[in-house]
Amino acid sequence: MARLVMKFGGTSLADVGRIAHVARHVKREAQAGHEVVVVVSAMSGATDALVRLTSEASALHDAREYDVVVATGEQVTAGLLAITLQGLGVSARSWLGWQIAIRTDGTHGGARITDIEAGDLIARFADGQVAIVAGFQGVGPDNRVTTLGRGGSDGSAVALAAAIQADRCDIYTDVDGVYTADPRIVPGAGRIARISYEEMLEMASLGARVLQTRSVEMAMVHQVRLQVRSSFEDPEAPASRYDHQPAAGTLVCDEDEIVEKQIVSGIAYSKDEAKVTLVKVADKPGVAARIFGPLARAGINVDMIVQNVSDDGKHTDLTFTVPENDLDKALDVIRSARKEIGYNDLVGSTNVVKISVIGIGMRSHAGVAATMFKALADKAINIQAITTSEIKVSVLIDSDYTELAARVLHTAYGLDSPDG
Amino acid sequence: MARLVMKFGGTSLADVGRIAHVARHVKREAQAGHEVVVVVSAMSGATDALVRLTSEASALHDAREYDVVVATGEQVTAGLLAITLQGLGVSARSWLGWQIAIRTDGTHGGARITDIEAGDLIARFADGQVAIVAGFQGVGPDNRVTTLGRGGSDGSAVALAAAIQADRCDIYTDVDGVYTADPRIVPGAGRIARISYEEMLEMASLGARVLQTRSVEMAMVHQVRLQVRSSFEDPEAPASRYDHQPAAGTLVCDEDEIVEKQIVSGIAYSKDEAKVTLVKVADKPGVAARIFGPLARAGINVDMIVQNVSDDGKHTDLTFTVPENDLDKALDVIRSARKEIGYNDLVGSTNVVKISVIGIGMRSHAGVAATMFKALADKAINIQAITTSEIKVSVLIDSDYTELAARVLHTAYGLDSPDG
Fold first, then answer.
1. Most-buried pick from A66, A138, B63, B393 (CB within 10 A)?
2. From the CB of residue A183, how many other CB atoms can be counted at a distance below 10 Å?
3. Same structural domain for residues B200 and B303?
């Protein structure tokens, strides 16, 4: 017997038929004797429709009223899933944010959970009742409805799992787990059975959009074991055992639970990058502050930085990357500070991609970067910038080579699956 | 300065454009300095769509979960109207049933309001804030969402008006008031400026579907003055004064407020009637009990009863009316008891209409019924049954004569408007 949180997204709850499919997943776990909390998103499309209504009502809308309107999407699916489960003979009831209560701060439209009073909910487990919780919502300090920001149902699930000390939090999505690389561009990519929180965070922040970064962070802090799995699985497959990992999906867990640590677990890429080059900047003390100070004040996040000494020894070319959306703003900031900085030319480009190899095993292994550089050089792919962390090496390359680079790196680190 | 409750139905809130129109009505009253509570229904069609989802989820659904799903309709319009009002520069906030709180009994799907804790809501009046209340919903003894049954937003409005001791409760609908007769069949019908609760109850129960019977009863008990008016009016028309009646609409109030009491205020009709005749029933003591006892036990409401002595003096023909929907059930009940009752033949008919003249003035005037009978006789309309109350005379006639009877009675009681 285990305590489980199961979270289903909007695609899995798109209509009454899909909700019935979800109910069969829940029934399987409940009948196995587990204590089950289900967290639901709104039916896919419902939240967008509600957001559109608030925008139509007034361009500048009160976030508190936005929350009142938008939170109804999850309320509907929570009620419908409870009804469906009861129809299958499973005892279930819905819980709204204010009923549990899921207390949040007062940041309407993007609230953070501060406390969950899970006592009532846990008490019902004794009767075998499944709790269906409306995700994405809570109640603020002033007793008003809050929402956790878009996609916040993952956050609800993780926070609930922590509050009730669940053995596992199963995140059901439309993919069957986390892959060693994007399967659309790397045919040999395979599903990762276990991945550490740190690796998952690097993957998530690089655009492997299976889990939200914030939810993974929360899971790491509270040591909530996350299982990413597909809601399209056969719901009548054997029920999970809390101490085992289900046959399918990816377990995101503490690195201690990962016995065989891969040097490289996966290859991720991010196209949301732009490159800015200042040509012939004076190579003198203080110039970096004059460039990056104004950018920081403008709220622009600078990632990679490369400085090349130029021929004359007095000037340098300086390149850095920013999120693609911030490129125009970054160029404006640099142009405004041209006098103080002093440069010959300013060039912006979005024709770049950041490609990363990620793995907790590389902490104890040298040569990871060398393998990367050699593999790319063999295909004549030019590296424009490099950045590293303890468990990641990232390079900036021409975006035309994204697919090729991902494939050669996947092969170079021995990740190609036998049946790929 | 007055305290007003304004209630808007689903047709008046059908889309964002209609909600903007409603907001202008509210702005008018708020800017006149009134303390305003607005009660909203769901967008027309929204509740039906939600009810359909619950039925699709499971044929036999838990009423508590039904309430969770269905109550979202009013939550959406409450938030949208608050946003729209803020966009017009009017301070406003939404209130859900549990936030106020509107306490109800635990009869999910058809709950009754037991108490309204209106203190917080009233406190906001001092800041000039308009309260937008989600109608049709409350919170039950177990802290779960309840709904008041279909059309229950009128009930929310009246109960709130009583709780905050409002000077008036304005019910905005798609008609501009209560008429002396159905204007579709009586061209001379005119709007009634003032009508007593008792008269309105008789009108409502007879199918003048402007107000629900239950809401009028509640208004009468709590002495809430109701103004029926059209949401299609020009919202920028002059604001109401609490002590005056608006130029348009019908005020439903205590009879003491009606100076010039009409003998007959209006003509109403109900087609929801069926006639049952038992031919040649033995005319002996106890037979009525044998007929109406089983009907009462079957939950069938018998209205008019007529007994005709037959030629032989030993038998009688007995006719009574029941709601049209109950006709088949009533016939079954009588057939089952044929042995105990003893009759020659049993005839059911739905080809009848009950037509009524209603007026508080008839309490002190004789001859009201005589005028009715003469007017109908003049047109050779046969009266099949008669029933009277203190403020009503009703007759059962062949439904073919509905329009003719309504028109001749309207004329006979001097109700035809000069410009009709």
1. A138
2. 14
3. no
Residues of chain A positioned with their CB less than 8 A from the CB of B79: 54, 65-69
pLDDT tens column, B248-260: 799 999 999 998 8
- Please state the rounded mean pLDDT for residues A262-291: 90
Domain count, chain A: 2
- Residue B195 CA to residue B418 CA, distance in Å, equals 20
Q: Which of A133, A134, A138, A74 is nearest to A107 (CA)?
A: A138
Q: Which two tokens stand for residue A23?
A: 């109910």
Same domain for B301 and B250: no
Report, as an integer, the average pLDDT of A402-419.
91
Nearest in space to B212 (alpha carbons), one of B164, B271, B252, B266: B252
Q: Chain B contact for A98, CB < 8 A?
A: yes
The pair of three-digit structure tokens given for residue B90, joined into one six-digit string: 């009017």
A348 with A379, same domain?
Answer: yes
Closest to B38 (Cα-Cα) out of B109, B89, B91, B87: B91
Residues A189 and A42 in one domain: yes
Confidence category of residue A151, pLDDT binned at 50, 70, 90: low
Other C-beta atoms closer than 10 Å to the C-beta of A271 total 13
Q: Please tell me whether residues A201 and A218 are part of one structural domain.
A: yes
Q: Which residues have a Cβ under 8 Å from the Cβ of A184 and sit 6 or more positions away?
A: none
> Do the beta carbons of residue A73 and residue A166 sit within 8 Å?
no
- Reported as a pLDDT band with limits 50, 70 and 90, residue B208 is low
Q: What SS3 state is found at A401?
A: helix
Chain A residues touching B80 at Cβ < 8 A: 53-54, 57, 65, 69
Residue whose structure tokens are 């196209």: A271
Distance of alpha carbon B47 from its chain centroid, rounded? 19
pLDDT digits (tens, 9 = 90+) for B341-378: 999 999 999 999 999 999 998 988 888 999 999 999 99
Q: Is the CB of residue A95 less than 8 Å away from at least one CB of chain B? A: no
Dihedral, CA of residue B14, residue B15, residue B17 and residue B20, to nearest 10 = 70
Tell me whether the omega of the peptide bond preceding residue B101 falls within 30 degrees of 0, making it cis. yes
CA atoms within 13 A on the CB side of A190: 13
Q: Are A355 and A267 in contact (CB under 8 A)?
A: yes
CB contact under 8 A, A53 and B96: no
Which residues of chain B lie closer than 8 angstroms to A108, CB-CB?
A: none
Q: Which of A59, A65, A81 sits opposite B82 (nearest CB)?
A: A65
Neighbours of B107 (CB within 10 A): 14
Domain boundary among B256, B278, B302: B256
Tell me, what DSSP letter sits at residue B191? B
Q: What is the CATH number of the domain that holds A55?
A: 3.40.1160.10
Same domain, B217 and B268: no
Block residue for tokens 């996947």: A410
Among residues A256, A276, A311, which one ends one of the domains? A256
Q: Same domain, yes or no, for B372 and B394? A: yes
- Nearest neighbour of B54 by CB, restricted to A20, A80, A145: A80
Contacts of B54 in chain A (CB under 8 A): 79-80, 83
Cα distance between residue A174 and residue A165, in whole Å: 26
Range of the domain at B292: 261-420
pLDDT at A420: 45
Tokens standing for B295?
Answer: 């009907």
What pLDDT, in 10s, does the model give residues A183-227? 899 999 999 999 999 999 988 777 667 888 889 999 999 999 999
Question: What's the whole-number mean pLDDT along residues A6-29?
Answer: 95
Structure tokens at B373: 């009978």
Q: Which residues contact A7 (CB under 8 A, 6 or more apart)?
A: A38, A39, A40, A41, A135, A153, A154, A156, A157, A169, A170, A171, A172
For B325-337, write each residue's pLDDT tens digit: 999 999 999 999 9
Q: Tell me how far apart the alpha carbons of residues B55 and A80 are, in angstroms, rounded to a whole number.
A: 9
Looking at the structure, tell me whether residues A251 and A267 fall in a common domain. no
Give the CATH number for residue A371.
Answer: 3.30.2130.10
